[in-house]
């Protein structure tokens, strides 16, 4: 056998071995290349076209990486309770002042104290609510298109601090003798209400924006807190009225109690960044914001008109539920008097506190809890029962509505106090239920990255409904004094 034939046979014999080695070497090379590629933990991450740095968790702590993947539980409903507390605190200034109506018009501005009939007593509640909501409505709409920048901690801290300082001033005004300067007392009180409303507008808007980062039930927690705030305020108002030796001491303890609640809200805010459940949604929201900012750098500012077009049916619902409620509460309800001398409650103070404030707040609170158990109607049909709630306005006008310094011409048709009480309860429970439902529906009608903007639209619609209801409430004293048959 020649040399060439022997070489050929050797190559055929060893060829498979060389090819297998090359294949093995190729596999090892491919494996090495594969290991150098980023590890993609979830298919959903791959769909986001994230950079290799993000996919390999570079620039992240292990805790932050874990929080992006897993949703921790809200243990013991801790975050829910915190937003409940902030819901109480955001409406506390409003509830404190409207429940103190007797203190203002019967004591500080009453004829027995100042020696003459104060001219603004008849419209005191309307003026108070007007001063409270004008800056609030302006701020809320302004803040949607030109958001206040800066750290949330600073915004909430200063808002609550301003509220605390103004309540301290209110306590001092309750302590001093203002009988010689009633006009100055009135204007100082209204100025403090305006400033309270401005600082509270920042506070309330921030809380709703924070809640919009979380699942919808946490927005419901804020609404529930709003309604608990009214119930709590009414209870302490009645309690201090009957355990204190004078209206002066009752007012002092009443306002001091409000201070403690604001301090609790101040303290609980600082627990939020320490909670893993809240941090998970905060990180998720920040990533969505980064995506939105990147998109805005390409496409411009957020598509406000598009967002508004998507959420306007729910904004109508939010506006209408608060418009109807504030048209009659507290402006009409607080001036409805006993019609039947044989009714269960005949004392004017107790009648107003229980049938107006306590009934509204307790049933509104119950109504705001109901969405946790069932949700009806759907987003599409919510406008129907809310539009029907407009019928509450003529009903209340035909009750025994007797505002101060107004001679009623319009006949009183509803003379049964039990009927009025039952209808007042239904008005309150529908207010709490439908307001919670509309506020929860609104952020869910847009893409998740625009949920906070939708939440701010809802907050602005809420304040606008309140403001419009307050404006029309100025008409009711004139209406019953000039229209009859």
From TrEMBL:
Keywords: Membrane, Transmembrane, Transmembrane helix, Transport. One of its GO terms (cellular component) is membrane. It comes from the Eukaryota. It is found in: Membrane. Pfam families: Nucleoside_tran. The keyword Transmembrane applies. One of its GO terms (molecular function) is transmembrane transporter activity. InterPro entries: Eqnu_transpt (IPR002259). Residues 1-38 are annotated as: Disordered. It is a multi-pass membrane protein. One of its GO terms (biological process) is nucleoside transport. Its main location: membrane. The chain crosses the membrane at residues 78-98, 118-142, 154-173, 185-203, 224-245, 251-272, 315-332, 352-374, 381-398, 418-441, 453-479. Residues 1-15 have a biased composition (Basic and acidic residues). Belongs to the SLC29A/ENT transporter (TC 2.A.57) family. This is Equilibrative nucleoside transporter 1.
């Amino acid at each position: 056998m020649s040399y060439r034939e022997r070489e050929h046979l050797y190559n055929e014999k060893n060829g498979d071995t060389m090819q297998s080695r090359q294949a093995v070497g190729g596999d090892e090379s491919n494996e090495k290349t594969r290991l150098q590629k980023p590890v993609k933990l979830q298919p959903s991450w791959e769909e986001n076209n994230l950079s290799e740095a993000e996919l390999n968790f570079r620039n992240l702590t292990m805790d932050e990486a874990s929080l992006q993947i897993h949703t921790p539980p809200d243990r013991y409903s801790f975050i829910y309770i915190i937003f409940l507390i902030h819901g109480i605190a955001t409406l506390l200034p409003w509830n404190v002042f409207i429940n103190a109506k007797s203190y203002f018009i019967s004591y500080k501005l009453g004829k027995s104290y100042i020696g003459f009939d104060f001219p603004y007593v008849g419209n005191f509640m309307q003026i108070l609510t007007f001063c409270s909501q004008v800056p609030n409505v302006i701020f809320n709409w302004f803040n949607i298109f030109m958001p206040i920048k800066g750290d949330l901690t600073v915004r909430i801290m200063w808002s609550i601090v301003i509220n605390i300082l103004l309540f301290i001033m209110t306590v001092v005004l309750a302590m001093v003798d203002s009988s010689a300067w009633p006009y100055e007392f009135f204007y100082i009180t209204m100025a403090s209400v305006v400033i309270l409303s401005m600082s509270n507008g920042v506070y309330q808007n921030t809380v709703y924006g924070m809640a919009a980062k979380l699942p919808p039930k946490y927005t419901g927690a804020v609404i529930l807190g709003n309604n608990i705030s009214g119930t709590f305020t009414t209870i302490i108002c009645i309690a201090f009225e009957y355990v204190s030796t004078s209206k002066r001491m009752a007012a002092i303890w009443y306002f001091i109690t409000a201070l403690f609640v604001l301090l609790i809200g101040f303290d609980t805010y600082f627990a939020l960044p320490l909670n893993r459940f809240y941090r998970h949604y905060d990180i998720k929201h920040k990533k969505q914001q980064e995506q939105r900012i990147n998109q805005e750098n390409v496409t411009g500012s957020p598509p406000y008109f598009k967002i508004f077009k998507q959420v306007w049916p729910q904004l109508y619902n939010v506006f209408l539920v608060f418009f109807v409620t504030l048209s009659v509460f507290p402006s009409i309800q607080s001036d409805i008097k006993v019609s039947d001398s044989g009714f269960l409650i005949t004392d004017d103070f107790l009648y107003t506190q229980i049938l107006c404030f306590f009934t509204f707040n307790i049933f509104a609170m119950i109504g705001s809890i109901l969405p946790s158990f069932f949700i009806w109607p759907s987003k599409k049909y919510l406008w129907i029962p809310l539009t029907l709630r407009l019928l509450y306005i003529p009903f209340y006008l035909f009750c025994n509505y007797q505002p101060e310094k107004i001679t009623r011409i319009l006949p009183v048709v509803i003379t049964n106090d039990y009927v009025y009480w039952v209808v007042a309860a239904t008005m309150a429970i529908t207010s709490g239920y439908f307001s919670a439902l509309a506020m929860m529906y609104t952020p869910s009608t847009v893409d998740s990255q625009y949920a906070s903007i939708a939440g701010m639209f809802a907050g602005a619609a809420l304040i606008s409904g309140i403001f419009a209801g307050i404006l029309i409430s100025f008409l009711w004293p004139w209406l019953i004094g000039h229209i009859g048959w």
